[in-house]
């Protein structure tokens, strides 16, 4: 079908490119909490539906810094900025020293306007330190908050950020002041843009590395660079499927594409290599295509299935970005396989008639006659293959000679690595994942240094009546207790603070008085802490807890607050739920510690089951798995030695090692048993396997390593660290294939042969006894 419909296949492939491009337009960039915690978890439900959609606000912050921020000219510019932003869609309110000064001045003089002199402004600020301390921390810094809903979508955030940046020049700030537009939304928007731009760089580098490795290890075939466009076509299809399936682009999923290039190009190489071989042997294109698809198609498909089983374990993770990573890898390897078996085979078949028109070959022919050059080139290539084969054969001889020592050291290092792996730290601070010189991050950290941290524990309190004096007094007492007793809780904010401000610092004794005060509070302020008649919010400021005490410390702090609530219970009918960004990340640490172990274990079981189903032989099922288990142990030791933390990306290493590395051991094992079936001894068979297929595995491993190497150039530290470890792990997988695998298969296969021999001898003895008995 492929050979008889070559042009139809290419037309269909082109139509799918158009469909894929349309699907790619649907891809969304995501970097928020929903990429860390599953939306079906109760924790996320509390965070998203109760806190984020009802109470949470987020702010674009304009930070002003200069010699003295307490002057009339500057306040005038701030006032003009607020007027411009007030009408912007999505802006709930703006908060600045200028608006607060106008409110206080109105209470004092009855005029809602800014005082005209610096002295009057300084007097108002100095006379109300509690009000201004958060937005004027010192005489050289001032903050203006442009507040939007916590549930505002990416487009709304981008529009408000753009409006703020455009409004700053029109506000006409005095020239001696520096204006910085920052805040968490600005940081998130900048991070998404950086991810988008770095994606093209990673793909470009992967392509360059692939060109280099193909010219080095695949130069014995015509059109040696053809596997690269074939695999890139599979990547295009993957982008399209990503949009249609709804897989978002995150820091983890963006790193899948260099991996897919490294893994997928091996499929294209296998089909290309076999078709070239068949064309030379048979000289008939139709038979060559049929033989290639008939023999190479199933072999590569088995390798793909084993890889997919390793990747499938990623779905056990509760971290959504890891699940998306698994989906993307599964879709990607299938797309690369389809691209190779259809487009790759058809293209080579079509190019066969025009191979003499290859410009590189024309130039070469001018220098040296084609036949002579081809002969010399073939000798060089086969010579290099023989050299690699001889080296691998010698390594095999040494490892088998000292099999007990080799296997013992390998297992000892594996156990040591597994032990050291327990001490590898876990990083969940998003700010550590991004380029540390990114301007938006520098600005955000600068604001944090000036203003202090803004991490919070958020308590959603469900009550029977939000105007109950007993409820408000309990919130007040509990807040004071937590701030006084915990060194990591710096302040508390709730509706209680607003009520006390309007009632001489005390909470009224009746519900009606509280209701009257509620009616005086502006809705924009009240809605931050109260929803309807049955829900209140209490915020605890915990500074820079994510950086200072890490997620483990936040978990302990959360448990202390829960214990204190049991010790100081609220009035009857009051229930409290702790939520917020900081608490949500506790879920992540659980997923990354217990989840990655479960992923690796499930991957082992799935690949083992898959191998047994294919071979119906326990030895053949176990032999490829054991070296990969050893490599997983080695990997833990490497991460500990290099001081690389576990992140949502490096947590997938166990599954990746199984998916990618098991292919090498399977190929070696296939050739070993093929040689044994020809009547050779185990030693002769492993020699032939090492020398014949070893160079092909080295070439395959080189393409994968070069694909992963593109990750090292990522500006995102999380992706660069992942690239570093995966390159090392693939090299370790190759090392295990040529050092651990030979003595392992000799030991297990020889043991099984001896067992068979004993059983055969016992059966023969029993038969002889039965015959003698019958004769008697």
UniProtKB/TrEMBL annotation:
<feature type="transmembrane region" description="Helical">
    <location>
        <begin position="199"/>
        <end position="218"/>
    </location>
</feature>
<dbReference type="InterPro" id="IPR000731">
    <property type="entry name" value="SSD"/>
</dbReference>
<keyword id="KW-0813">Transport</keyword>
<feature type="transmembrane region" description="Helical">
    <location>
        <begin position="622"/>
        <end position="644"/>
    </location>
</feature>
<dbReference type="InterPro" id="IPR004869">
    <property type="entry name" value="MMPL_dom"/>
</dbReference>
<feature type="transmembrane region" description="Helical">
    <location>
        <begin position="650"/>
        <end position="673"/>
    </location>
</feature>
<feature type="transmembrane region" description="Helical">
    <location>
        <begin position="400"/>
        <end position="420"/>
    </location>
</feature>
<keyword id="KW-0653">Protein transport</keyword>
<keyword id="KW-0812">Transmembrane</keyword>
<dbReference type="GO" id="GO:0015031">
    <property type="term" value="P:protein transport"/>
</dbReference>
<keyword id="KW-0811">Translocation</keyword>
<keyword id="KW-1133">Transmembrane helix</keyword>
<dbReference type="InterPro" id="IPR022813">
    <property type="entry name" value="SecD/SecF_arch_bac"/>
</dbReference>
<feature type="transmembrane region" description="Helical">
    <location>
        <begin position="299"/>
        <end position="322"/>
    </location>
</feature>
<feature type="transmembrane region" description="Helical">
    <location>
        <begin position="328"/>
        <end position="351"/>
    </location>
</feature>
<dbReference type="GO" id="GO:0005886">
    <property type="term" value="C:plasma membrane"/>
</dbReference>
<feature type="transmembrane region" description="Helical">
    <location>
        <begin position="725"/>
        <end position="748"/>
    </location>
</feature>
<feature type="domain" description="SSD">
    <location>
        <begin position="233"/>
        <end position="350"/>
    </location>
</feature>
<keyword id="KW-1003">Cell membrane</keyword>
<feature type="domain" description="SSD">
    <location>
        <begin position="587"/>
        <end position="747"/>
    </location>
</feature>
<feature type="transmembrane region" description="Helical">
    <location>
        <begin position="693"/>
        <end position="713"/>
    </location>
</feature>
<feature type="transmembrane region" description="Helical">
    <location>
        <begin position="597"/>
        <end position="615"/>
    </location>
</feature>
<dbReference type="Pfam" id="PF03176">
    <property type="entry name" value="MMPL"/>
</dbReference>
<keyword id="KW-0472">Membrane</keyword>
<feature type="transmembrane region" description="Helical">
    <location>
        <begin position="225"/>
        <end position="245"/>
    </location>
</feature>
<protein>
    <submittedName>
        <fullName>Transporter, RND superfamily</fullName>
    </submittedName>
</protein>
